[in-house]
Design brief:
Layout: H1 2-23, H2 28-31, E1 35-40, E2 44-46, E3 50-67, E4 70-89, E5 94-96, E6 98-102, E7 108-110, E8 124-126, E9 132-140, E10 148-153, E11 162-169, E12 183-187
Parallel strand pairs: 1-11, 3-12
Antiparallel strand pairs: 2-3, 3-4, 4-9, 5-8, 6-7, 6-10, 10-11
């Protein structure tokens, strides 16, 4: 009887201990999540296997693209954000696969897949000593442009690996609700 009571008490202590681990900080996702390498627009952010330099951000209502030799205009219900970046590998060849735009409200926008036929987008294979320019293109709500953060990593799940977090800074919103400097048509055929 005493042995059975001791086993039940031990089981209850183990359950209480596991519950305490579950609700305490830091959460497991925080422990194995990406390791941030932070910087701002114009800085070179250095991660474990790559470096990224975000040069400029442009906003447009429409994108003009060439698809299989024909001109095409892509529209969006929000605004296009085009970030020109330069990637460089550090010690060995790698592939940058994921880029996301995190707005001030915490909403995250992955790079659009509507332009998967274009060159110069992700995934981008990079080798040491051979920097490579790329464009990161996002469709987002106009109010998500101000004080956004660009998130760049090698893999979708960057567990225990570096993730570049680039602060894009304040972007004033014009009277029409669009970011200041938004152009009507951005030609993607022009050089980076």
């Amino acid at each position: 009887m005493i042995r059975r009571s001791a086993n039940i008490i031990l089981l209850l202590v183990a359950v209480a201990f596991c519950y305490g681990l579950q609700v305490s900080k830091p959460h497991y996702g925080d422990l194995i999540g990406p390791i941030p390498a932070r910087g701002k627009l114009g800085d070179t952010v250095v991660g474990r296997a790559f470096e990224v330099h975000a040069e400029k951000v442009e906003f447009a209502r429409n994108l003009k693209v060439d698809q299989f030799g024909q001109g095409k205009v892509l529209t969006t219900g929000g605004v296009w954000a085009v970030v020109t970046v330069e990637f460089a590998a550090r010690a060995q060849s790698t592939v940058i696969s994921v880029a996301s735009w995190q707005g001030p409200t915490g909403l995250t926008y992955d790079q659009t897949e509507r332009l998967s036929f274009m060159n110069g987008l992700l995934p981008a294979a990079i080798d040491p000593g051979l920097p490579r320019k790329a464009r990161l293109i996002f469709e987002l709500r106009p109010d998500e442009a101000n004080n956004a953060t660009l998130l760049v990593s090698e893999k979708l799940m960057a567990a225990l690996d570096s993730q570049a977090e680039i602060s894009l800074g304040p972007v004033p919103i014009a009277a029409d609700g669009l970011p200041v400097g938004t152009i009507e048509m951005l030609d993607m055929a022009r050089p980076m």
